Amino acid sequence: MASLKDLRNRIASVKATQKITKAMQMVAAAKLRRAQDAAEAARPYSERMASVLANIAGAMEEGEALPLMTGTGRDDTHLLVVFTSDRGLCGGFNGQIVRLVREHVRRLEAEGKTVKIVSVGKKGTDLMRRDLGSKIVARMDLSGSRSVGFANAEVVAEKVTELFDAGEFDVATIFFSAFENVITQRPTAQRIIPTEVPKAAEGAAAGANLSLYEYEPGPEAILAELIPRNIRIQIFRALLENAASEQGARMSAMDNATRNAGDMINKLSVSYNRQRQAQITTELIEIIAGAEAL
Fold first, then answer.
1. What's the pLDDT score for residue 227?
2. Is 90 considered catalytic here?
3. Cys-Cys with 93: which of 217, 230, 249, 276 at CB 3.0–4.6 Å?
4. Confidence (pTM)
């Protein structure tokens, strides 16, 4: 049985931990509002960009599409760009993303595909090192940035396009956590190369209710500018969604940790009081017995 001193030290230690988790919860709550606003503001822009690409693609003749839009025409090598956090203490946030990646890798390998991984974030690299380490072709660390910016997305996009131009992969998919609310963050996979616009483009070609435009310069010249930018936009949106999801997950995790610390303090306090009362009772019995002996 632990001594009274040990119980006092443990109670003090848990109280100190509770103060830290409470402070981290408050910091995450403050950061969450800004991150959530940024993620929600980016959604309409990225969706509109996809709509514009679909409209332009529908006006193009067959065979005019650019490689970044149509891909290499093969489906042999897949590049998975995995976005995770650089810091921990955010519950199952990183584990859920990596779990989705593992399922995707198993499915692709069962189909005889080759898989390569670009890991963005320290925690994802650590989680994937044991079973997927041999597939990681690049590791990227964004911990030096105070907040997510478009420059971060450009760095990742340049690496992806560089690998594509070198013929290192045929299909690229990004993995991130889409923010829904503080409690729910949804692991998501989104293909960025080839660009996911064929369905909308087919609808436009079939006479769907889309506006008709005349393009100057031609669609090919416009797509040459828009498609690389769309890749950056989709990556930027994934980074923003991930940032909001990370803060939401950290806020929930620190709230749970604070509650658990409170429960532990209560249990330790009860044990301490019982043991102290038993010790006082024993001392009283010894005093009374000694007085009667005299």
1. 87
2. yes
3. 249
4. 0.84
